[in-house]
Amino acid sequence: MRSWSIPAGRLFGIEIRIHLTFFFLLLFVWGLEKGTQDTTAALRGLGLVGVIFGSVVLHELGHALVARGAGIPAKGIVLLPIGGVTILDESQAVSDPAVTWKRDIRIAVAGPLVNLAIAGVSALLILAAIPHFQFWGKPLVHSSNLLRSLVWGNIYLGLFNLLPAYPMDGGRVLRALFSRRSDPVQATQRAIRIGHVFAILFMMVGMLMGDWWLVMVGFFLFVGAQLEERSAVFQSVLQSVHLEEVMLTDFATLSPADTLEDALDKAVHTLQDDFPVVRGSDMVGVISKQKILEALRSNGNGYVQAAMSKFFEIAAKQESLASAFRKLSARNLSIIPVVDEQRLVGIITLQNLMHSMALLAESRKLRRETLDS
User: Fold this and answer.
1) CB 60 within 8 A of CB 76
2) What is the chain's mean pLDDT, rounded?
3) H helix intervals, the chain
4) Rounded to an integer, what distance in angstroms lies between the CA atom of residue 167 and that of residue 188?
5) Do 97 and 131 fall into the same domain?
6) d(CA 373, CA 369)
7) pLDDT in tens, 96-111
8) Backbone torsions φ then ψ of 19, nearest 5 degrees
9) Which of 181, 214, 240 is the last residue of a domain?
10) What count of Cα atoms within 13 Å lies in the side-chain half-sphere of residue 214?
11) Torsions phi, psi of 302, nearest 5?
């Protein structure tokens, strides 16, 4: 989610991030306007980007709120000029294909319906204020007329997103239909292939016709498909990989009777950031390098027992990565001890989890590409 995007705040508890392609749109609009003699053209260009940005935000919030109503909280939204990507916490969703495909279709169509509703309400308000407003003047979307662009921009966003080109919402509907007879990753892969065909067609037709808007749309469509493919592989890894496959088995432990200086000395010689605290064969707490340093600075040398956290989650080695993520996020933890028959056999840290998942996702992608070829 954080690749090639920057944070832009939170709405309804959902992290909003702007994909860097939005800045390509800014440069593109500036390139179109710089040849004009109008000194206000640049400001109107920014206004047009603002209209598109606001419409995209509301589009994605439509997806997120309908998903929340279906019991799937949204973790974040990555905004693209043609719509965006809503990152849903699929680990909390019902996985029965007989139910999920209908739910996914409802979530998918929510975004375009929001845009069409914005266009309709905006048109009525504009007509109420300016009775003879010309909605059909050309060009329909341009910085020279932001009110007309507000209406037609949302109409375009709504209708364009209904195309059966993944990751457009029509492509999501197509994926939902595919998922009735195949697993989610395969369904996503099939929909993405169709999306790539549309992206290439848009770019080729745009270059042949000299329409750089079409070229940009094809480019954004291709980028969105790549984002969704990574998300689908990530979810597949979460659900199918067990902790015993990725847990750290060669790790250091501390004793509650260790001094903080001894603990820091041990921490210096390991790459671990977090440590299980063990008394005999029982685990009694966890402590991090940062906590050791903070305790030394504030209270001087003492014992690990006084500085460790006694609140921690444990996991069985047969549990999935999805389960580990839920436990890590529920209490904002950075380490989960892994046990087998009440015996500590490994640890999962947020750092090693992210590293392992990136490698697992990439290896699965390479394996599928090998099988497809």
Assistant:
1) no
2) 81
3) 21-33, 41-69, 97-129, 146-160, 169-178, 184-209, 212-240, 260-268, 289-299, 304-307, 321-330, 350-372
4) 9
5) yes
6) 6
7) 666 788 888 999 999 9
8) -70, 145
9) 240
10) 13
11) -150, -155
